[in-house]
């Protein structure tokens, strides 16, 4: 539920993306999040868990 709330807030500010990339964390992999992303027509791409390169790209995009 927190993921959906957070993404909804992001979409309200930045617009709805065609695709979103996340790690394979349980919060992002739930059936509820999948249904919600599908309802928005958003393709969900996941990275490889514990992948330094994939995680670096995500953290760079987030500014962390």
From TrEMBL:
The keyword Transferase applies. GO terms for molecular function: endonuclease activity; hydrolase activity; RNA stem-loop binding; RNA-directed DNA polymerase activity. Keywords: Endonuclease, Hydrolase, Nuclease, Nucleotidyltransferase, RNA-directed DNA polymerase, Transferase. Gene3D superfamilies: Ribonuclease H-like superfamily/Ribonuclease H (3.30.420.10). Residues 1-64 form the Integrase catalytic domain. PROSITE patterns: INTEGRASE. SUPFAM superfamilies: Ribonuclease H-like. This is POK18 protein. It comes from Nothocercus nigrocapillus. The lineage of its organism: Eukaryota, Metazoa, Chordata, Craniata, Vertebrata.
């Amino acid at each position: 539920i927190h993921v959906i709330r957070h993404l909804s807030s992001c979409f309200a500010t930045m617009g709805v993306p065609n695709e979103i990339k996340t790690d394979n964390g349980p919060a992002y992999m739930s059936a509820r999040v999948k249904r919600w992303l599908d309802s928005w027509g958003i393709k969900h791409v996941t990275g490889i868990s514990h992948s330094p390169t994939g995680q670096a790209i995500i953290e760079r995009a987030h500014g962390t």
